[in-house]
Amino acid sequence: MQHRTLPDLIDVFIIGGGINGCGIARDAAGRGLSVVLAEQADLAQGTSSASTKLFHGGLRYLEYFEFRLVREALEERETLLTAMPHISWPMRFVLPLHPTMRFDTDTPASRLMARLLPWMKGRRPDWMIRLGLMMYDRMGGRRILPATRTLDLRQDPAGRALRPEFTKAFEYSDCWVQDSRLVVLNARDAALRGAHILTRTRVTSAVPEDGIWRIETSGPDGRSVHRARTLVNAGGPWVQNILHDVVREDRPTTIRLVRGSHIVTRRLFDHDRSYFFQGRDGRIIFAIPYEQDFTLIGTTDQDHTGTPSDARCSAAERDYLLAFASTYFARPLSAADVVWTYSGVRPLYDDGASSATAATRDYVLQLEHPGGAALLNVFGGKITTYRRLAESALTKLSPLYPGLRGNWTAGVPLPGGDFAHDGVPALIARLHATYPWLGADHAARLIRHYGTDSFALLGTAGSFADLGRDFGATLTEAEVRWLMRHEWAHTADDVVWRRTRLGLRLLPGQIAALGSWMQSE
């Protein structure tokens, strides 16, 4: 995509093309720093495309008394929503209640309840949940999102899909986000501001020499050497590997690899709200409307051994999610309902928690100077706080760059997001009016992926045939060329599983044909 000459001395060299790396690249480039980002595979190929796809405060983190993390995340929801209304939108969550449900959990809140109200014996009473939701509504300065309300599931449509014993629920607000598109659009904005994004490029070594990093890479154009003032290790679940194998630092493990698995089924309910289910084991899962015709259910929390790229949803995890959801849904679920599974490894900062579920979701930034060269290591984090993490990273680095511009990213649109937060219906109508031959579903999908850039993607096309080859499921040659030219797509998987989710609709033969065509191009 890029053909600009790399600078002789780079201000910030970033390892890792996930959400944290791309967020830092965008922020740094927007402050006028020269930036190079190297990703060993495709952007968002790891954890950042395998999330539950929510901008949320983390309601359950209140039980762990992680108030700063929850407040920061809640504050971010609406900041992010206004900057990317094409790929993020408000979503209401239905939390069913049942008076007899008890929970085997060891959170700080449950231990406090056990001391103060021992007769509750593991129950989360309605008032406790309502108190948590009241805090949730007020901690983040909510302006756009509606407040919590109580539902009568015997009357509300959300009750139809649930077992009849669930008669009451609370409904609260969070936001949905297309996670892998978030990563790519941050990378694209960084590139538009001068950053160099190198995909399929592995960093093989990084050595400090007289206060400057000498960095060797291996990529599509062979081996290269770069010099940089600061090295940022944003390798996600590979952060420890980078320290050991690239920087050659021998230190104790500081991250905990936790596998989160999800299943996707055919659509289980006929409304656009999500469910928040509480389990007897103290965990929670979501059941979320997904890609119009599906339901996304997740996530698990399992300590992960082995390499992060080997993460798969096991049969045991699949069955756990099916059984969990079946305690709520009127129609029990089975493996036959599952159309797809995915799994990602979260690199949580190892705070010594007794279980994967209890491990902190907060992030930790460590700045050190091995050999006199600046090294910033990024541990942990969650997708909702990626922008704040990037700001914190630049705050740590700012003494190294006198006169550096201050924070600037809050509310600044990502590419294609330069329209009102509630303007998607009007933008879809405008696209359809400009290209009346475009199907309604096709127009809606393009706006939800590319926003105002949809008009540039379609260009002067006067008919569907003008968009070139039809790969199926509304994917055309014009769109694939856009993804190859502007979004670093190289393979069929890049297109159908990370730039879009059309892999759910395309047949294996269609995906293979797409891959062959892309290779020929």
TrEMBL record:
Q: Under which main EC class is this enzyme filed? A: oxidoreductase
The record ties this protein, via InterPro entries, to: DAO_C, DAO_C_sf, FAD-dep_OxRdtase, FAD/NAD-bd_sf, G3P_DH_FAD-dep
Q: Does Flavoprotein count among this protein's keywords? A: yes
Q: One biological-process term from Gene Ontology?
A: glycerol-3-phosphate catabolic process
Q: Provide the GO MF annotations for this entry.
A: glycerol-3-phosphate dehydrogenase (quinone) activity
Annotated catalysed reactions: a quinone + sn-glycerol 3-phosphate = dihydroxyacetone phosphate + a quinol
Can you tell which superkingdom this protein's organism belongs to?
Bacteria
GO CC terms of this entry = glycerol-3-phosphate dehydrogenase (FAD) complex
- Which terms are listed as keywords in the entry? FAD, Flavoprotein, Oxidoreductase
**Residue ranges occupied by any FAD dependent oxidoreductase domain in the UniProt entry:** 11-387
UniProt cofactor(s): FAD
| PROSITE patterns membership | FAD_G3PDH_1, FAD_G3PDH_2
Domain Alpha-glycerophosphate oxidase C-terminal, chain residue ranges per copy: 409-504
Enzyme Commission number: 1.1.5.3
NCBIfam families given in the database record: PRK12266.1, PRK13369.1
Q: Which family does it belong to?
A: Belongs to the FAD-dependent glycerol-3-phosphate dehydrogenase family.
- What is this protein identified as? Glycerol-3-phosphate dehydrogenase
